[in-house]
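S1.2 Input.
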Amino acid sequence: MLAFTTLIIAIPLVTILYHIALKRINNPQISYLLVFVLGILFFFTGSMHFIYVGLEIIILGIVIVFVKNKFMKPQKSNTNI
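S1.3 Output.
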């Protein structure tokens, strides 16, 4: 039961992180770093619930960054500069 309650928090946070930052960053190392920083921030709350949320943010974020860099093609710009 704890896994589902932490996923309810982790999935929207990773989705927001993706739409705000991760889809604009082309460097995978920076993307992985942002995911780790967001996940580790939840470790400092001291609550066991938020430690699990932090772990799930890290795991979901790594999967999203991997899929983005492996399977999604970068968009070409339409400007001819």
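S1.4 Remarks. The helical segments are 2-22, 28-41, 48-71.
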